[in-house]
Amino acid sequence: MGAVIATGFLILAISVWITNNAILPFNIYVITPSIALQPPSFAHFLGTDDLGRDLFSRILAAAPIDAEVALSVVGSAVVFGLILGSVAGYVGGLVEEIIMRVTDVFLAFPGLVLALAIASALGPSVFNSILALTPVWWPSYTRLARGEALTVKSRQFVEASRASGQTTGHIVFKHIIPNILPVLLVYATLDIGNVILVFSVLSFIGLGAQPPLPEWGLLTSQGEQYLVSAPWYPIAPAVAILIVAIGFSLLGDGLRDVLDPRVRGLFS
Amino acid sequence: MSQTSDPNHVLSIEDLTVTYRTFNRNVIALTNLSLNVPRSTIIAIVGESGCGKSTLGLTIIGLLQRPPAIVGGGKIIFDGNDILKMSESQLSRVRGTGISMIFQEPMSSLDPVYTVGQQLTEAIDVRENRKSGRVYGPFERASARQDAPSLASKLAGSGMSVRRLKRRYNAGALEALEKVQISDPRRVLDKYPHELSGGMAQRVMIAGALLERPAFLIADEPTSALDVTTQAQVLSLMRQLRDEIGASILFITHDLAVAAQIADQVIVMYAGEIVEQAGVKEIFHANLHPYTEGLLKSFSHKYKDEGTMEAISGDVPNLKNLPTGCRFHPRCKYAFERCVREHPELLNVRESHKVACHLRA
Amino acid sequence: MPSSILEVQNLAKYYPVRGAMVSSVVKKEKLWVKAVDDVSFTLGFNETLGLVGESGSGKTTLGRAVLMLDAPTRGEISFKGENITKLKGEDLRLKRREMQIVFQDPMSSLDPRQRLRDIVLEPLIAFQKYNKNLDQRKLLSETLASVGLPEDNLLRFPHQFSGGQRQRIAIARALILNPQFIVLDEPTSALDSSIQTQILNLLRRIQEERKLSYLFISHNVNVVKYMADRIAVMYCGKIIEIGKTRDVVENPLHPYTIALISSVPQPDPEKSINEKPLQGEIPSPVNVPPGCRFHPRCPYAQDVCKTTQPELIQADSGHWSACHFANDFKEGKHAALTVKQPNN
Fold first, then answer.
1. What is the pTM of this model?
2. Complex-level ipTM
3. B310 phi and psi, to 5 degrees?
4. Nearest CB neighbour to A167, from listed C101, C108, C126
5. Which chains touch B (3 or more CB pairs under 8 A)?
6. Domains of chain A
């Protein structure tokens, strides 16, 4: 189920991005005040916003933007975290101390505050949001990777590798990292929803995507004032966030099974 | 059937079949297994992994998870009733004083948050409550009670409860620990399970079993995780159980040598079936099934300079894909044409010696 | 040319006790787990030394220390005449080609994500730059053939093999670098009995073919009987008896060995074991008894045993025992020793 939603979302995002919004039913930028705030109808599935733009098209158009942010942030967090955490966990000693203390410093900041601080320093834009969010995310992956690396390190096949004369580098990249990657990936899928949410908050306050760019958080914030008079306006994009977040989280569950070669065997 | 209420048998199993349902195929754990357990007897069930011995033990005491296990048919008669047809509450009444079980890892069977004394006292309470007809409910907390000591125990001087750190234990708990030869039993009463060594923990389990006085005890590899010196002591305690309270013990093990030490009767299992069943002397000196013969050779170790031991060829059977005819035939050096075609029955070939092999039919 | 492939002298491996900071500050001494304490022995070429002991004896720690998998706290290890205790880094790594290990549980000693082919070839990759002209494929075939594994499963994962096959894979991995010395740490304890015999026979055959030396660690005396030329018995971190297999098993000269051998069950109901071989429990490795470590449990303990630690003395030709009264055991005079009453 999760796989369906997640894949659907990604396909949507890619198609919208590739075609540069051409496949959307309506143009998302043209302002038509005469049809502003219309409730959902056959023509406009989710109604129109305060400037007469089709809400459904705007929501779909936001997909590539949210996808880009979510995947970049989580992707780089996984890569950084994986490498730093594995090295810290396996090598130990001073190297581990240094890496983990730096990580702790970053973790000490409340995530949102840190993101806000960086975002406002850099200036509001989508790209800057990615830069602002990544440092918030990678510390927890580093922690997670290090913990997992410690567990894997104590497993006998790692010792067997060492006994065969393998170098540390080889062991980290060929044994430690492949064995902790699944855990990190599962965690990452659960996290994608979180990134979208935080990015939405950034946009909500005006530090992320800038109008007239459509973005779910931004749309929700723009529609907030119409909650009573035109509820479809803020609710629809919020529900979109919800669906995607749940979809990825379900995907994460399924992914864990697929990645374990032992469980994979059950299906053969 | 007269067999089912034979007073000489504490337990009767008839035609038991158990399968496990997995994703794609069914694993046949036990096939048409029949077995009678006489009173005050230690029966060793010997077999390798996948033979079904653990499944058998769990099914008897009703701890089998169903699903994924499915009982395809058969009866297990204990005290006149069929265990397979009992509800969970009926089963919990049978467990403990009727049928008891001890496992390979004693640590996992002891509750880590209660002391040894508390858990043994609970065992006593269960037994006492059952004698008086009271059913021990799931939420009743066992409280350490002062039982009126019997004349014998008063004479022995154990009429007082042991008091330490404001915990009062039943005097019977102390006695039980003494019986299983735990040194310094008073201190052990106050210990938590994780503070015990493997051997001690297993002896505490046996003490608990002694207290509950079950009619039938299932011991699933009780000594496999112990050092050989500790194992020796535990084996003598099991015999004590049989002699003192007349319990019958189903001793499940993969180790034929241990079976030789402890058993009155030995049952050899392979791929979910009994392939040979006889008194302990016959199994070792006059066995009839090729698997028993091969297995015995795996345990008869020579010195390095005395030549090689003969090994059974092949691997333990794949329960999802059993061979046709006799399940052992692919590994059997005596196999002939009939073995591939026809599944051998378990037949009485001599007095109290059954074997399932075409060679002997 | 050295006379032995391995010579271990006064080897000790101590682990610091964690969380004992307060008591160590108070008592002004650090607490150590003395897993291996002052162990010495030699291993000849093409010879198997069996290392027998129960839990807490230190046999596994010794096996690993000998390979420098855990640097020893004290002592010296000479491999083929060369002192390897001081080796580090690349020098040590290169030495590993000649000494390998097979672990007890093949399920955990193989990476579940690696295919058979990669598991067995992996050691070669570690030394690729030294062996550029090696025909890896051919070596793989030969090694798999010597452990009796067919080549049609090269791409399979460990969980797709049976226990016995997995252990063959582990053995193949240990063999591919062509070592001369292998530590076998309970290599068959996790296997079914019928498979155990197959693997033990395989190990013997390989030893014959390649003239290997084995350090065979096991808690199972019967298995060690079948595999070893000599046996060393460990108790609480020390070797308390060592000698030719037959001598130690049939004529033990240490009370612990006597108790151990007498409690080993034989597959014959007429041969019953001693059911009360030992009193008490194995002492905590942090708090080792003074004098002879075995004295609290020894039925023959005398006063000297409580104060003086016995050294290994040669009580018979090639047969050493760390007991003050080893000679009495040899001459059957031990009954004359005051037998201690079992106490609590």
1. 0.83
2. 0.85
3. -85, 130
4. C126
5. A, C
6. 2-6+68-261 (1.10.3720.10)
